[in-house]
Amino acid sequence: MSNPNGVDQTENPVPETKVLAVASHVVYGYVGNVMATFCMQALGCEVAAINTVNFSNHTGYRQFKGTRTPPEEIRDLYKGLTNSYLLDFDVLLSGYIPSAEALHEVALIARDLKTRREVMRPGSFFWILDPVMGDQGRLYVSEELVKGYKSVMRSGQEGPDLIVPNGFELELISGVHLSGSTSTGEDGAELERRPTGDNYEATLDRVKEAIEVLHKRDGIRMIVATSVRIQGKQGVLCVVGSEKKSDGSSRCFVIEVPVLDCYFSGTGDMFAGLMVGRLREACQNAGTLDKHGWASDDDVSASELPLAKATVKVLSSMGAVLEKTMKAKDEELEKYESSRRASLDPQSKKDDEEKRHFLAKTKAAEVRAVRNAGDLIRPNVRFEAVALD
Questions:
Q1: Is residue 6 a part of any domain in this protein?
Q2: pLDDT tens-digit series, residues 285-323
C-alpha cells in the first residue's frame, strides 16, 4: 500500500498508538495540532485533537484572526469524549496552551486519563508536555501561566512523564541560568529578565544541572531540551536529553545538529509529534512499554536509552525535511522577487512593499511536511547521541 507521495506504508515499526493531542490550530500552515497530528499520523498513530486556539495562521506572520478556546470549552469537549466512552488513549500530547486556567483543565484531563489507565494497565499511560512559554529571552505567555507550568511539573505521579522545553523554557522551569550565571535556587523565583537571542550561549554543565533539578526536585522522569546554543560550539545547536535513574540522578546525552539559516515555525510541534511515535517504537524494541512510565533499568547507558534512540530518529527526520523546506523556500522567493520587480508600481508605498515582502518570506518558510512525508516515516539516520559525563 502506498500514499500519493509514493511512501510505502505496508510495514510500520511504531506500535498501535492512540493519542489525545491538545494544542493550537491554524487554518493555514503547519504548526500546533496541524503539524503534530500529521507527524503522528504519518507514523501510524490514531489521533484525536482538542484545539486550544483557532487562528487563521500562525503568529509568525505578525497578524492573524481567530479565537482562544475558553477553559470551560476544553472541559466540555473532554466531557463529551467521556460520555461516549472514547478515552482509550495511550498518550496525551500537550502543546501551546493560552492561559493558566486552560492549563489547569489539561492537567485535570491528564490526571483522569492516568487514573483510568491505572485500573487496566498500571503505568502504561504517558503524558508528553511541551511547555510552550517563549524563546530567545522573550515570553509568549503570561507570568501566571509560567507559574502554572511550574506547579504542574511538581505534580508527582500525576505530572508529565516527558517534557520537551527549549533552552529558555528549561531555564524558566528549573530556575537555573544556563549561561553559568547566578541561578534562582529551588524557591522557584522568576529568572532575571536578560536578553538571550542567538548570541546567548549555555554551558553543558549548567544544562545538566537544570535537568537534574527537574529530575530530583520535580520528579520528571524524562527530559529533552531542544535548540540549546553551547559555548564553543559554532554552527551547531545541541539537544540534551536524560532519563533519571531510580535515585533521581540524570543520564544525559547530547546530540549536535547543524544550524540552518532560516526561521521556521512549528518545529517544536514537529519534534513533539514525531517523538510520540518514535519513543513508543524505541520503548517497544527495548521491552519497556509495559513498565511504569516506560522506565529503563538503571544500568542502561545514556546513549542506549530508548529516549536517545528516539531523539536521534526524530532529529534525522526533521533535518531532512527542513533542508528541503529551505530549498523550496529559496525557489519560491526567487519567483516572488521576479514577479514583484515586473509589477512594481513606482507610486506604491515603501511600507506596503516591506510588509508584503515579509509576509512572502514567512509563507515561503512554511515547513513542507506533507511533501516530504517519506523522511518522517523512514529517516536516514544522520546524528549520534553521545553520553554527557
A1: no
A2: 999 998 888 999 999 999 999 999 999 999 999 999 999
Q: Domain for residue 9, yes or no?
A: no
CATH number at residue 253: 3.40.1190.20
44, 223, 203: which is closest to 131 by C-alpha?
A: 223
**Does 95 reside within a domain?**
yes
Grade residue 347 by pLDDT with cuts at 50, 70 and 90. low
DSSP 5: T
**What's the domain count of the chain?**
1
Q: What distance in Å separates the CA atoms of residue 277 and residue 273, rounded to the nearest whole number?
A: 7
Coil vs helix vs strand at 118: helix
CA dihedral (114, 275, 309, 112) in degrees, to 10, reads 0
> Percent helix, strand and coil across the chain, each rounded to 5?
45, 15, 40
pLDDT in tens, 129-150: 999 999 888 898 999 999 999 9
C-alpha distances (whole Å) from 207 to each of 4, 17, 310, 336 are: 43, 32, 20, 42
Q: Per residue in 321-335, pLDDT tens? A: 999 999 999 999 999
Neighbours of 302 (CB within 10 A): 20
Structural domain for 223, as ranges: 18-387
- What average pLDDT score do residues 74-90 get? 97
Predicted confidence at residue 71, as pLDDT, reads: 98
CA separation for the pair 6, 373 (Å, rounded): 9
Dihedrals phi, psi of 139, to nearest 5 degrees? -80, 140
Q: Are 150 and 116 in contact (CB under 8 A)?
A: no
**Structure pTM?**
0.91
**CB 35, CB 273: distance < 8 Å:** yes
CA dist., res. 232 & res. 47, Å (int): 41
On whether residue 13 sits in a domain, the answer given is no
